[in-house]
Structure formats: structure tokens, C-alpha cells
């Protein structure tokens, strides 16, 4: 059976991280990723004529495996594996596998490298077979490791990796999918790092495109080259060098121009002029717009991008927010860029997304093709849409989709996005700081003074819930009644607000309608899911289903369709993705396997069984519901008896209680105490209580035995049923009972949250204005009088 995709990634990371020892993650990643690379190219290209990667004789992963345990394993890897591969494929700057300062000396080095190589001998890591159509499992594994190494590398050493979610945003807003692309279409990244951003753009294109990248750091440029090969882009041209001082891509002495340029340059590079005279730049990147400050290199990279674009080219660059509003030389550059019409849009991102810094950043979108007629700049503030992911923030699937939808369609949305005219920008002296144009702050929940003084819920606060009243117009009058002009009274008890909302006919009809709405989608995709066969592309399936679900809920009242989309993407990542990779590899096979755990001494223990595709609860629910009900009844009886024992112990505990003389409350101690006092007439009550407890204890033991036996019987029934399952039954269990049932529960939970939000808001308003100030004053006076009277009775003059 194929290894689950998530298990492949996590096992790689866990194994590698365990061997890292004291080495910094930013260094250790080089060793791990090189091994992953060699394993992949050996599986995919070894022995193939005309392969894009040459594997010299004796330099495959199998040859490396043969070196395990040898005293000179590090030196052999360098000389017999890496050197021939580097020469044959024009690669360089592989890490030194014989570096004692990083890998240790003697046996320590031998053991570490031997164990590291052994990780990649896992049969599940046969990359010649473990690939589904258009689904780059190995490339994704590489990305997974890169993300984790970036997270572990710390603030100053994680800049080699652009978060994939940000790369996805850039790839989609560029419009490369809609463009007429071909092999002649060029995509360039002047600061490509490990190449993740370039690859996301290439993946977004409908056809193969030509990739170019330059990276200053030698080791990182090697990672980028390997990354291209791992993602089936072996012809990508990645070169090493400083883009600003020594741009490698030129034509006839001038900068080469490209159709698309993307970049995530180092933020606020303070050494960008090192080796460069900006005033006399031979490529004329700065004179038309102005020379950036010597200690702020952000605009140097942006102007390099502008100069590297064809006259119809499009680009996107990630930069710190300061480029939008900083003054002096940068203000002049910004003004010139805006007047030239090159800036198509600005997207503000959440803070703490990037591994090299925690400051918020933005995406500057450049479009030369429409520069002449540009009437404004589309601005979008996505700073509040993210999730926490360990020490960093991370864009969710719905955040990415919303950004792309709003930007590519030019949709204006309050507090989120709008087209800002050139006239408005000029009035603001070409300051592009997003808060000047988009107020993304949530409005304050204002207190109504008259409502506090005279009572009554302000009509304005109730009207602010109009999205609910539009759907359930009768619900408003069922909850509120007029008090005086502009103010209302709650007509139900505060404790009954939830019931009044949930049981209102209009609200129940709305909930039923939403359930029917989901059933429509469920029915439409059920047959599609059951028709899946081995070899299908899980990523394509996820994209199609998620888009259909998003469109299905677009325009529906109250519910946010992007939230529904997120539920699907979350479930896909957590469960459905792994299931689909099992199906595409093995078909609709549900075969349980034993769980064998091995301790550090090598002793194995059978911990039961499991089945990933069709878990035991699905089998039990559909085929053994009666047996499960009997087990549940026994469990309830057991809990009841255990509860009665606990109550008895609490009621008769303490110094004077029946259990006071016991060292421990257990069967032996209680039995011994009963025997001790059985002839003591004064201890009859104590004996009766202890006897009752003892009977309950015996009942509990009997029930525990019955529960254990019933669980074992049910477990055996379920296990024996798997071989009897037909393919049609497996499809029903997986598609209907597992996937669609889980999605239905998640989406129904979204509806519950909507209704809870209304309930909570109504309750807050009711409690806020429940008592007007005069009544509160009267209550305070009454309480004060009671205190005074109490003090007088005590002989104290208040």
C-alpha cells in the first residue's frame, strides 16, 4: 500500500531533524536536500538515454548506499558521487560531506551519514513510481522540508525561502494563466533564492515556459538548481551572482528583458551599492526615475525589475511597506513610477509572514502593457486575513483566493479593496500608504448615552443586524418591540434568546434551505467522486471541487462563501488528500493492517490494527450499529455505577465519614474494614454504606469485563468484514459516509456559528441596556442603606 502523502513528508522531516544534532538547520538543510535530490534523479533518470540529467556510472544513490558504514564515507560521497554529478550537469557548491566541524569526526560522522542515507532507502520513497499525473509529490516534499528548515533557521537565515502561499498569490495575480504562453515565454527572478517563487509562476502557466533565475548566495543557487530539476524543470537557467552589481542575463551589452519578472529581494538591503556606482549604472536602471538611498536598496531591486521587463511585460515584487510612504529620494522615485503608469496595484500583506523578518510587506504589481492609459492604482489591504502557524503567520487558502479574486477582477470591497484614481494619489503627494486609501479598521462598538440614562436598546444597533432581518424579517419583530422613538425593548427573556431565534419559523426555514443547498452540491459531486480511478490527479480534483463549492455558495445570504471554501481546503489537507493519493496509487482498496510498535530494545508489540481509507468507525456505523448500541448501553451502565460510587465517596468522605478510617478507597481496604466492624452495633450505618460501595465495586468490575469483551467482539467483527467489502461498498463508505459527511458537518458548523453570533449580539445589547441609570442609582442607594443599617446594629456610626 502506498505511503500517505502527509506521512511521507512528516517522516522525512522527523528522521532528518532527529539526526541534525547541534548543527544549525540552515546548514543541515543542504545535506538533506542534496540527498533527496540524488535519490530522485537516480530513481527517475538513471539508465535513461537522452535524460535531461546525466548520472555518471558509480554516482547514483545506490552507489551512495553502498558506502554506508565505511570509515571514509564522507570523502567517498564527495569524490565519487558529488564531483561526477557536478561535472556532468554543471552543478557546483555542493556541501562538503567530509566536514568534521559540521558532521563530527570518526565514528560520529560515519554514523550520522550512514543513518542519513538510510532514511532515503525507505521503499515508499521510490520516486520513479510515486507520482500521480501532474502531481509533483517529490517537489512538494522538497517544499515541505524547505518550509521547516526556514522555520528552524531563525530570523537571519531563513531568507532562502518565500512562503508558498505568497508565491501562489503572485503567480495568480500576474495573469500568466490567461496569457498566450509558450516555450518562448520567459519568466525571470533576479533574487530567486531556492526558486520556489519561479516554480509557482511556471506551474500557473498553461504551457511550459522558460525560467531564468539569479541568486547571490552560491549554496542557495545550487538549491534552486536542484529544486528546478525536482519540479520537472531541468532546463531552467539558474546562475549565481549579485544581480545589482553583476546581472548575468544580458543581450548586446544591455539587460535582457522578459515577459514576466517576480522577486522577493532582501528587505532594505543596506549594502546594495557595494561594487556598484548607481550614478553611472551601465544598464541605466536608475537615471529615468532616480537613485535609491545608499542605505535602502528596496527601490534598486524594483527598478531593476522595471528595466528587465519587456514593453508588454508584467512583474510583481515583495517589498517592505516603507516603500509606499518613505520620503526624500524614494518619494521622487515613487512619484516617477506612478506618473509613468507602471504600477498596476498594491497588495498589503499580514505581518510576520516571511522567515527573514517579522515586518509587514506588500506586493507591488508592475504592468507595462497598460501603463500609458493607466487611470488609477488598484489597492488591496489583506493584512488581517491569516492564521497563526507556530511562530509565524500564514495565509489560509481562503485568504489567497480572496486576494486573487478581488485583484484580478478589480472588485471593490469595503475596508478591503478599491481602485484609487491618479488624481487622489496626486492629492496625497504620491504617498501610497494603504491606510490613506483603505480604512480596514473595525468600527467601534459605541455606547448609547440615552439608552443608558433612560433604558431601551438603540434602534441603530438593531438595524445594524440588517443582514439577519433581510433573511428573517419576522424574527426582528419577534425579538424586539418599540419602547420610544429610536429605542426598542427585548420581548423575550434573556435566557430564552437562543431558543427564540432557533425555533422561529423563518430561521428554521432558512437553516433547512441551507441544508438543502448543501445537498444539491453533495448530490452533484457524489457520482464524480465514486468514478475516480487509479492514476487520477488529486490536486486537479481538489481544485475543481473547491471551485465548484465556492461558486455554489457565492451570493448565499449570511454565510461567507470563502469560509465554506476554507472548510473544504482544511478537510482536504487533513484527510481527503491522503485518501486520494491512496486511491490514485492502489485503487479502491480497504485493507486493514496491524500496528506494530518497536521499542528501543527492538522488541515489537502488536497495538491493534487500522485502515486509513476506511476507518473502523465507518464499518461499525454502517454494518454493526446494533452491536455498537449494545456496547454503548453497557458503557452508560458502567458510567452510572462509577458515578454512584464517586457520589458515595464524596457524600461520606471527610473526618467523620464512613470512609474516614480507610488508607485507600479500594476493594481490599473496604472489605477489610467491613470485616473489622461487622459485630460492632454502633457501626451499622458505616457497614451499610461500605457494603453498598462494595456491591457497586463488584458491579463496576463486572461491567468493565463485559465492556472489554464487547469491544473485542466488535473489533473482531469489523476486522473480519473488510475482505467482504465490494468496491461499490468501499466507495459508499469513503465518499458518502466519510468525505461528504465530514464536509456537511463542517459547513453546518459554519451555519451554527452564524446563528450563535446573532444570539450573542442580541444578548450583549439586552444586558448593556437592561437597567437605566436611575434604576442603577436606586439599587446602589438601597444597598448602601442596607450596609448603613448593618453597621448601626454593630454599633458603628456610618
UniProtKB/TrEMBL annotation:
Q: Where is the N6 adenine-specific DNA methyltransferase N-terminal domain?
A: 10-120
Task: Give the similarity note.
Answer: Belongs to the N(4)/N(6)-methyltransferase family.
Q: Which reaction does it catalyse?
A: a 2'-deoxyadenosine in DNA + S-adenosyl-L-methionine = an N(6)-methyl-2'-deoxyadenosine in DNA + S-adenosyl-L-homocysteine + H(+)
Organism expressing this protein natively: Desulfomicrobium norvegicum (strain DSM 1741 / NCIMB 8310) (Desulfovibrio baculatus (strain Norway 4))
Write down the Pfam families for this protein, in alphabetical order: HsdM_N (PF12161), N6_Mtase (PF02384)
KW Transferase (keyword) present:
yes
Q: Name one GO molecular function term.
A: DNA binding
Give the enzyme's EC designation.
Answer: 2.1.1.72
Q: Which NCBIfam families match?
A: hsdM (TIGR00497)
The record's InterPro entries line, in alphabetical order, gives:
D12N6_MeTrfase_N (IPR022749), DNA_Adenine_Mtase (IPR051537), DNA_methylase_A-5 (IPR003356), DNA_methylase_N6_adenine_CS (IPR002052), Restrct_endonuc_T1M (IPR004546), SAM-dependent_MTases_sf (IPR029063), T1MK-like_N_sf (IPR038333)
* Name the UniProt record assigns to this protein: site-specific DNA-methyltransferase (adenine-specific)
Key word S-adenosyl-L-methionine present in the record?
yes
Could you tell me the keywords of this UniProt record?
A: Methyltransferase, Restriction system, S-adenosyl-L-methionine, Transferase
Example of a GO biological process term: DNA restriction-modification system
Question: Which Gene3D superfamilies would you find in this protein's record?
Answer: 1.20.1260.30, Vaccinia Virus protein VP39
**Residue ranges annotated for the DNA methylase adenine-specific domain, each copy included:** 134-444
> What's the domain of life for this entry?
Bacteria
Amino acid at each position: 500500500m502506498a505511503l500517505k502523502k502527509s506521512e511521507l513528508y512528516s517522516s522525512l522531516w522527523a528522521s532528518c531533524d532527529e539526526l541534525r544534532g547541534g548543527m544549525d538547520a540552515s546548514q543541515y538543510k543542504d545535506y538533506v536536500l542534496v540527498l533527496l535530490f540524488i535519490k530522485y534523479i537516480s530513481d527517475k533518470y538513471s539508465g535513461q538515454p537522452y535524460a535531461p540529467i546525466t548520472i555518471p556510472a558509480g554516482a547514483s544513490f545506490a552507489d551512495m548506499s553502498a558506502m554506508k558504514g565505511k570509515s571514509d564515507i564522507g570523502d567517498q560521497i564527495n569524490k565519487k558521487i558529488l564531483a561526477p554529478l557536478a561535472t556532468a550537469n554543471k552543478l557546483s557548491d555542493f556541501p562538503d560531506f567530509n566536514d568534521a566541524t559540521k558532521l563530527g569526526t570518526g565514528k560520529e560522522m560515519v554514523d550520522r551519514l550512514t543513518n542519513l542515507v538510510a532514511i532515503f532507502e525507505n521503499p515508499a520513497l521510490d520516486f520513479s513510481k510515486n507520482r500521480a499525473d501532474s502531481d509533483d509529490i517529490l517537489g512538494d516534499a522538497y517544499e515541505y522540508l524547505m518550509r521547516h528548515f526556514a522555520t528552524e533557521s531563525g530570523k537571519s537565515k531563513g531568507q532562502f525561502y518565500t512562503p508558498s502561499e505568497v508565491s501562489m498569490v503572485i503567480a495568480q495575480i500576474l495573469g500568466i494563466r490567461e496569457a498566450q504562453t509558450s516555450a518562448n515565454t520567459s519568466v525571470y527572478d533576479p533574487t530567486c533564492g531556492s526558486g520556489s517563487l519561479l516554480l509557482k509562476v511556471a506551474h500557473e502557466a498553461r504551457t511550459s515556459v522558460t525560467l531564468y533565475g539569479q541568486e547571490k548566495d552560491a549554496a542557495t543557487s545550487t538549491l534552486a538548481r536542484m529544486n528546478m530539476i525536482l519540479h520537472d524543470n531541468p532546463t531552467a537557467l539558474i546562475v549565481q551572482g549579485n544581480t545589482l552589481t553583476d546581472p548575468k542575463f544580458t543581450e548586446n551589452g544591455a539587460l535582457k528583458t522578459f515577459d514576466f519578472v517576480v522577486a522577493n529581494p532582501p528587505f532594505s538591503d543596506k549594502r546594495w551599492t557595494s561594487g556598484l556606482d548607481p550614478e553611472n549604472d551601465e544598464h541605466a536602471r536608475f537615471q529615468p526615475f532616480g537613485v535609491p538611498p545608499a542605505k535602502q536598496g528596496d527601490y534598486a531591486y524594483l527598478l531593476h525589475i522595471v528595466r528587465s521587463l519587456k514593453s508588454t511585460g508584467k512583474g510583481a515584487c515583495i517589498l517592505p511597506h516603507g516603500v509606499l510612504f518613505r520620503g526624500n529620494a524614494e518619494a521622487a522615485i515613487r512619484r516617477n513610477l506612478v506618473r509613468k503608469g507602471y504600477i498596476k496595484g498594491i497588495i498589503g500583506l499580514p505581518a510576520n509572514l516571511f522567515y527573514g523578518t517579522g515586518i509587514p510587506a506588500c506586493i507591488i504589481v508592475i504592468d507595462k502593457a497598460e501603463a500609458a492609459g493607466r487611470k488609477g492604482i488598484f489597492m488591496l489591504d489583506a493584512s488581517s486575513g491569516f492564521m497563526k502557524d507556530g511562530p509565524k503567520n500564514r495565509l489560509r487558502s481562503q485568504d489567497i483566493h480572496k486576494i486573487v479574486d478581488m485583484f484580478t477582477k478589480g472588485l471593490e470591497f469595503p475596508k478591503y479593496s478599491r481602485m484609487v484614481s491618479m488624481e487622489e494619489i496626486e492629492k496625497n503627494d504620491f504617498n501610497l500608504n494603504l491606510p490613506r486609501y483603505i480604512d480596514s479598521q473595525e468600527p467601534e462598538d459605541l455606547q448609547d448615552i440615552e439608552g443608558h440614562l433612560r433604558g431601551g436598546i438603540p434602534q441603530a444597533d438593531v438595524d445594524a443586524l440588517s443582514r439577519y432581518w433581510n433573511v428573517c424579517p419576522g424574527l426582528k419583530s419577534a425579538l424586539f418591540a418599540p419602547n420610544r422613538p429610536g429605542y426598542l425593548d427585548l420581548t423575550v427573556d434573556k435566557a430564552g434568546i437562543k431558543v427564540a431565534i432557533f425555533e422561529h419559523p423563518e430561521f428554521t426555514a432558512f437553516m433547512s434551505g441551507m441544508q438543502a443547498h448543501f445537498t444539491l452540491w453533495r448530490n452533484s459531486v457524489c457520482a464524480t467522486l465514486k468514478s475516480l480511478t487509479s492514476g487520477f490527479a488529486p490536486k486537479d480534483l481538489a481544485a475543481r471541487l473547491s471551485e465548484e463549492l465556492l461558486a455554489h455558495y457565492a451570493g448565499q445570504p449570511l454565510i461567507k462563501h470563502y469560509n465554506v471554501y476554507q472548510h473544504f481546503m482544511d478537510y482536504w489537507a487533513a484527510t481527503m488528500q491522503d485518501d486520494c493519493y491512496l486511491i490514485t496509487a492502489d485503487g479502491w482498496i480497504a485493507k486493514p493492517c496491524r500496528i506494530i510498535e518497536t521499542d528501543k530494545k527492538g522488541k515489537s508489540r502488536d497495538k491493534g490494527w487500522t485502515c486509513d481509507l476506511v476507518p473502523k468507525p465507518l464499518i461499525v456505523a454502517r454494518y454493526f450499529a446494533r452491536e455498537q448500541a449494545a456496547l454503548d448501553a453497557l458503557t452508560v451502565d458502567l458510567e452510572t455505577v462509577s458515578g454512584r460510587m464517586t457520589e458515595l465517596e464524596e457524600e461520606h468522605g471527610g473526618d467523620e465519614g464512613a470512609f474516614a478510617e480507610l488508607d485507600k478507597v479500594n476493594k481490599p481496604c473496604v472489605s477489610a474494614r467491613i470485616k473489622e466492624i461487622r459485630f460492632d452495633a454502633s457501626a451499622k450505618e458505616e457497614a451499610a454504606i461500605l457494603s453498598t460501595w462494595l456491591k457497586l465495586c463488584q458491579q463496576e468490575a463486572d461491567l468493565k469485563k463485559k465492556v472489554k469483551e464487547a469491544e473485542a467482539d466488535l473489533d473482531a467483527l469489523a476486522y473480519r468484514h473488510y475482505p467482504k467489502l465490494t468496491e461499490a461498498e468501499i466507495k459508499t463508505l469513503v465518499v458518502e459516509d466519510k468525505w461528504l459527511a465530514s464536509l456537511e458537518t463542517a459547513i453546518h458548523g459554519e451555519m451554527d456559528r452564524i446563528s450563535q453570533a446573532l444570539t450573542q449580539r442580541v444578548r450583549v445589547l439586552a444586558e448593556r441596556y437592561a437597567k437605566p441609570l436611575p434604576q442603577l442609582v436606586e439599587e446602589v442607594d438601597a444597598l448602601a442603606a442596607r450596609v448603613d443599617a448593618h453597621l448601626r446594629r454593630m454599633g458603628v456610626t456610618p
